[in-house]
Amino acid sequence: MFTFLEGHATILALSVALLYSYYYFASKQNRERISLPPGPPTAPFIGNLLEFPKRRLHLKFSEWAKTYGDVFSLKVLNQTIIVLSSPTAMHKIIDVRSTSSSNRPKSIIADMITPNNMNMGTGRYANETWKSMRKASAQALSPEHIKKMGSYQFAEATQLMHDFLLSPESWFDHLRRYTTSFALGIIYGKRGPTLGSQDVMDFMDVHPQFINALEIGTLPPVDLFPILALVPEKWAKWKRTVAHIRTLHLTLFDRLLGNVEHRLVHGEEKGVLMEYAIHNAEKLGLASREHLLHLGGVLLEGSDTCSAALQNIMYALTLYPDVQSRVQQELDDVVGITRAPTFDDLPQLKYLLAFIDECNRFRPVGPLGLPHEMTKDEIVDGYLYPKGAVLFVNIWGMGRDERYFDQPEEFSPERFIRNPFGIKDGVIDDPARRPNMQFGGGKRVCPGIAFAKSSLELNVANLAWAFRFTPTIDGATGVELTPSLDNYSDGVTATPKPFPITIHLRYSSQKEIITRQMVEVQSILNRFDDSD
């Protein structure tokens, strides 16, 4: 028999259990009443797996957005995917609810390459490690610091002109050298003066391998089937590939950081990021050398999107000769032909800036950015954004929305002359649209906006001022070889693929101007020229 106290304890326990069950099932029913955003019909168990695009996701996502709206959802097995295709949708989830949407989706491969959440871009959690790296990078890539490094950037841009002058056939790689070298300089104080510089070669070798490894379908779907991670390396080629990429990363980043540490021992400072990070490691929360190693590495990785944008712009100049002529006429009117452009000229080059904006709209380098993941349930506009859902921000679709853009498949810089966002006449724009949306939002907004903006503007001004871009003629057939802006890689970064174009000086006098300017900036470049 129960004693009096035992009986009351049993009744209390049953009451608690019943109360818990009531709230659990009531919550579950309420949760189920709130549906996911609409989307394509799903099949049992597999969801939208069979129709989910294997490449160029942004094209299919933009097609679905026209049918299902600015926010739609998909199911791939047990994974919920939600696509945001308007500035307002992006703002409500990525900006306003950044605390709930700042994680990255789990990536076993990314974590194997850079473990312990040390990659600020791909690291899953917006935790203390991430915050400390973010704080340091915000200092290094701030508009104020980029402006402070303006003379060095001008010198690197001068060398880029000079490289185009000496070997125009290597233009594609010259652009990568420029962005890599400028990033090396402001991060480590050690530039890459030639395509044969060890740091430049190593970065140009490992970075495409890293991006390719993260691309959907390149390696086995370990995140969908985690049991694959248990296969021993000797039977899993993909594991050997991942280990090789990690080794290449660590070798490069260790050599670059070691160079800075060596200089500091000898009292040689250049006012660059890694010096600041080393001196202020405790204050910034950079608890170990590993933090410093990967802080510099991830910022260097980010430079490659800038070279991809410049490569797209060179193709656009070639493909649209009337646009090229108008850009160059403006340069002749504002700058003249007796000197090269400077930073002070840029605000007056209205058409050139509109041309850059149109290139970024027409072919965004990150058409979907990097995906986010929900850390808890959120209900927005009556739709459920469940914990664990993967979020894609459809930058490509936002720039092609026919509600706001007139003939969005046409290349027309004039749209940005008429409206700062390129919006067609007579419509009320999405109120959440803002500059630089291609750089993301919320806590994960890219810190490299000033780096990219100044690099694009100055170098496009320089190169369009100095050179004429035309399609190459096949020597054997006499056929014009026309590049395509659709010839880009799949994956997170839509990087254009190399294609020959012909580059000539616009005026013979410019050769002497570029050569003289190169001599004038050499002392600035020398300051960042450590021997390999």
TrEMBL record:
Membrane topology, record value: Single-pass membrane protein
Transmembrane segments: 6-25
Subcellular location: Membrane
Source species, domain of life: Eukaryota
A Pfam entry, by short name: p450
Keywords: Glycoprotein, Heme, Iron, Membrane, Metal-binding, Monooxygenase, Oxidoreductase, Transmembrane, Transmembrane helix
Gene Ontology MF: a single term: monooxygenase activity
Family according to the record: Belongs to the cytochrome P450 family.
Pathway field: Secondary metabolite biosynthesis
GO cellular component terms given for this protein: membrane
PROSITE patterns: CYTOCHROME_P450 (PS00086)
Keyword Metal-binding belongs to the record: yes
Gene3D superfamilies documented for this protein: Cytochrome P450 (1.10.630.10)
Binding site for heme: 446
Lineage: Eukaryota, Fungi, Dikarya, Basidiomycota, Agaricomycotina
Protein name listed in UniProt: Cytochrome P450
Cofactor(s) the protein requires to work: heme
